[in-house]
Amino acid sequence: MLDVQSLSMRFGGLLAVDQVSLEVQEHEIVSIIGPNGAGKTTVFNCMSGFYKPTGGKILFEGQAVQGKPDHKISRLGMVRTFQHVRLFNQMTVVENLLVAQHRHLNTNLIAGLMKTPNYRDREQKSLDRAAYWLDRVGLMDLANREAGNLAYGQQRRLEIARCMVTEPKLLMLDEPAAGLNPAETKDLNQLIVSLKEDYNVSVVLIEHDMSLVMDISDRINVINQGRPLACGTPDEIRQNDDVIKAYLGEA
Amino acid sequence: MAAQNLKHAFFCAVITLIISYPILGFNLEAQGINVTLTGAGTSTIVMVLLAAVVVFLFQLFRESVMATLKSIPRPLPQTHKEPVAENKRAKIESRVLTAIIVLALFWPFFVSRGSVDLATLALIYIMLALGLNVVVGLAGLLDLGYVAFYAVGAYTFALLSEYFGISFWMSLPLGALLAALFGLVLGFPVLRLRGDYLAIVTLGFGEIIRILLNNWTSLTGGPNGIGGIPEPTLFGMEFGRHVKEEGNSSFHETFGIAYSGEDKVIFLYLISLVLAVFTALVIRRFMRMPVGRAWEALREDEIAARSLGLSRTSVKLTAFTIGAFFAGFAGTVFASKQGFISPESFVFLESAIILAIVVLGGMGSQLGVILAAIAVTILPELAREFSEYRMLIFGAAMVLMMVWRPQGLMPMRRIHIELKKQE
Does position A165 have pLDDT exceeding 90, yes or no? Predict the structure, then answer.
């Protein structure tokens, strides 16, 4: 469903991403790994429309999306999380989830002022969906807290829930396990697998936590210094000499 | 330590002298066409010296003074009170608000004409501040040229009535819509700018409108302004002693009561009250609608909001346009109240005062902004006896407020949303 073809991103004299290709089938978890500064997040930023790539193509369900504004890409069904959690801190947890459903709501100002049946109906539906996902990630009791006051692990889960209420087809997670303890990482592991199994969402994952990556990925792409290094199933990657060199250094 | 304290205290005392002596000690006196500078009397000099000594002593013993101040228990130990339950608080709030509105409806019949006039002005500022609160408080767009939209509203009414004889009630929506249109047109190219840059551009826009009004003499009358703006009518009844326009009747003759100049003032006050309440209610609804949440989301984290499919331009534009709309409202009422407008009324200071109201009240908080608007319009009137030091007191109040309560009079509180538990 997602096909990234020889993507390049140049910042002045620095070629941050060079000829990276990536393919995601439906119902699949694909990981992108690589040492720090390898350009993983830059690839994400290009895919989510945050940067305009300087070369290459990004096809989402057959439609070219490179260079489109980020909110349009998100409306197509490609939604991302961020390396550093980006919640609306002063808004409550529920409000965070309601904002995410903006395009499912009746945003007509007059309809809202008049409280038309259609407006109320959609508002109620989005509340229900928010409630469902809060329950799903275990934040129901904190629904009316300000998002900025949540613990870090809870903020991470809220961010994923916030993506899921938009009903995406493809979820892009940027280091979702960063800053989590082992128990939380395990929960996250189950959550991501369940997103794929139960909600039929494809996932692209950037992660440093190897246990998580090896456990749940269907395929892994390795990037090093902006260039693609290897691509394959977890087992293949584990045995790939280039990858071992890149991570551990040459003997 | 002590030596340093002494040095610091001495420094502060000298500064006090430097600042206060020229302000209080010299007087400019006009004698014929010449202006002469006269020195201060002995009493003033003694007072200035005394003030310096007080500052010196305070700074010298500052720590012990502050310590004693802190040990005095606070009159309102709010911190130990149980927080009121959410739904109970909402009920109390709505009751208090209803009571205030009812009181405000009957109040003008018992007080002097001057205070009703002042209250009308306060209501106009409430409308302006509520509108700007959407732009600055909710959407987080620093707008320093808000007064431009106010001017557009006022001039729309003035020009329409002068050239086409259109009445207040027709102009009210037209003025607001035209102001909103200006907001839209300005907002479109400008809203990709952020923070400081946006502030500068809006500041420029405010000045452009004022200068345009000042120089387009053939249309606006330039600095001479436009006079003879009609007062609002009540179903075709005029409030003047004599009917000015054909087809209208006069209020006091229709009801067979004696003519009183106060009727007009009270009527205008009531219109402003209704409009202010309308503004508050509409914006309150907006805040709870998707668009209100989108404003705040974009203020909180623009990148995250965009990654969730919110279009930056359209969300910001709605905030800008709606803010401008209510400024146009206020402008129309203002023009009608004054009966005469000139570009003098729409200088940058007005924008600054409206912004100060929003910040003082607490960004995003409607009740706080309303209280601040009342305070800022009425306090200078109460402090008339100190007329020379009015701005000084105003400034000092502002500084103290920001030191002690930077979040504003009544910080914004979030509404709790009830979720049905999933079975």
Answer: yes
Residues in B touching A166 (Cβ below 8 Å): 308-309
A:B CB pairs within 8 Å: 120
Between CA A240 and CA A231 the distance in angstroms is 9
Residue of A nearest to B284 (CA): A113
Number of domains in chain A: 1
- Does the residue A10 lie in any domain? yes
Closest CA to B420 of A147, A106, A132: A132
Answer yes or no: is A194 within a domain: yes
Choose the closest CB to A95 out of B293, B306, B308.
B293
Do the chains contact at B414 and A140, CB–CB below 8 Å?
no
**Do the chains contact at B301 and A86, CB–CB below 8 Å?**
yes
Q: Which residue of A has its CA nearest to B282?
A: A113
Confidence of residue B80 (pLDDT cuts 50, 70, 90): low
Any idea which fold B100-404 has? ABC transporter involved in vitamin B12 uptake, BtuC (1.10.3470)
* Residue of chain A whose alpha carbon sits nearest to that of B319: A109
Average pLDDT over residues B274-294: 92
Question: For residue range B95-132, what is the model confidence (pLDDT) as tens digits?
Answer: 888 888 888 888 888 888 888 989 999 999 999 999 99
* Facing B300 at nearest CB: one of A88, A103, A128: A88
Higher pLDDT, B246 or B411: B411
Residue of B89 and B326 predicted with greater confidence: B326
Does A110 map to a domain?
no
CATH number at residue A215: 3.40.50.300
Domain ranges for chain B: 2-67, 100-404
Q: Are B297 and A113 an interchain contact pair (Cβ–Cβ within 8 Å)? A: no
Give the structural domain span for A201: 2-77+168-248
Closest approach of A164 to chain B, Cα-based (Å): 10
How close does chain B come to A244, measured CA to CA in Å? 35
Does A203 reside within a domain? yes
Distance from CA of A219 to the nearest CA of B (A): 25
Measured in angstroms, the CA of B244 and the nearest CA of chain A are apart by: 38
- pLDDT score for B422: 45
Q: What is the ipTM of this complex?
A: 0.89
Q: Tokens 């500041």 identify what position? A: B203
Q: Tell me if B307 and A90 make a contact (CB, 8 A cut-off).
A: no
